[in-house]
Amino acid sequence: MTEEYTVDIELLCGVLNEDGSIEKSCTIKAMTGGLRKKISQPEYRKNGIKVIDAVLDACIISIGKNPFVASREKKRMLMADSDFLMMKIRQLSLGNEVSMQLQCPSCDTKWNAELHIDEIECFSIPEDNVEIIDGRRAFKIDTEHWKKCVMFYPNREDQAIIAKIAMNNPTQAAYSLYGRMLHLRDNKEVDDSEFMKEIDKMPLMIIDELTNEINGILPGVESTHEAECPGCSNTVEMEMGGADFLFKRPETGNKKRLKIG
Ligand SMILES: [Zn+2]
Fold first, then answer.
1. Which domain covers residue 134, as residue numbers?
2. How far is the CA of 236 from the centre of ligand 1 (A)?
3. How many angstroms is it from 231 CA to the middle of ligand 1?
4. Average pLDDT, stretch 173-179?
5. pLDDT of 105
């Protein structure tokens, strides 16, 4: 593979070294035909996390001075960096432009909207809200109903577990993630299964207070974008991710072909 298809990037959040320092430098390479063939198999196409694992494993060469070992990074790499890497690998492999078929819910106009990867907003960890607990990065929240809470920033292990749940029930996945993240509440350790039982009886307003707070802190890649409908000028949401994003197909209708008739 030529060097053109290898690039050094800086991770959004980086991985935490044992000495407490953060390693952000990372070298990635472009996806190959072999990888596309692998992730095109039915058992991959039905399982998003399996695709992410395969892509990261094949395309990350190193983090800092260390060669990439997927199992070692399950705990160290944050979910935000996993999403960020998928975006950077896609950009390196297939270009900066993502084109998506959209249909306007108001006037039914269909059109191809384009999104530029380098214009996508990315958010890192807020520097004033990070502490190290059990070798992981955590943040504090302190709201009316969620007093003196310490929550872990979600890592790749969390991502793998909630992705399986999300296939059937995205709300359950979100609540499971909160349970996994929540380390201390009112300065006391939180039991994951007790928390899940508690949330079933919790008024929505209290759950949403937590959701709002977390959403304002969590690092990540903006996955929802807006496009203007050419028919009625309404704003339509486009969701980045999934197969369309990763498997851009070569354009159909090769213009060099000779058209007869
Ligand atoms: Zn429209």
1. 125-218
2. 8
3. 5
4. 95
5. 92
* pLDDT score recorded for residue 55: 94
Total of domains in the chain: 2
CA 227 remoteness from chain centre = 21
Give 55: exposed, middle or buried? Use CB within 10 Å, 0-12, 13-18, 19+.
buried
Tell me whether residue 253 is in a domain: no
Same domain, 106 and 137: no
CA–CA distance, 117 with 4 (Å, rounded to integer):
19
**Cα–ligand 1 centroid distance for 77 (angstroms):** 41
Average pLDDT for residues 197-216, to the nearest whole number?
Answer: 96
Tell me the average pLDDT of the chain: 90
Residue 19 C-alpha to ligand 1 middle, in angstroms?
54
Q: What share of the chain has pLDDT > 70, as a percent?
A: 91
Kindly list the protein residues that place their beta carbon closer than 5 angstroms to ligand 1, a single-atom ion: 104, 106-107, 109, 229, 231-232, 234
CB-count burial class (<10 Å; 0-12, 13-18, 19+) for 9: middle
Q: Please check whether residue 240 lies inside any domain of the structure.
A: yes
Distance 232 CA to ligand 1 centre (A): 4
Q: What is the pLDDT of residue 256?
A: 64
Q: Does 259 map to a domain?
A: no
How close is the Cα of 170 to the center of ligand 1, in Å?
Answer: 28
Phi, psi dihedrals of residue 234, rounded to the nearest 5°: -70, 155
CA of 238 to the centre of ligand 1 (A): 14
239 close to 227: Cβ distance less than 8 angstroms: no
Global pTM reads 0.89
231 inside domain = yes
Q: How far does the centroid of ligand 1 lie from the alpha carbon of residue 102, in Å?
A: 10
pLDDT band at 171 (very low <50, low <70, confident <90, very high): very high
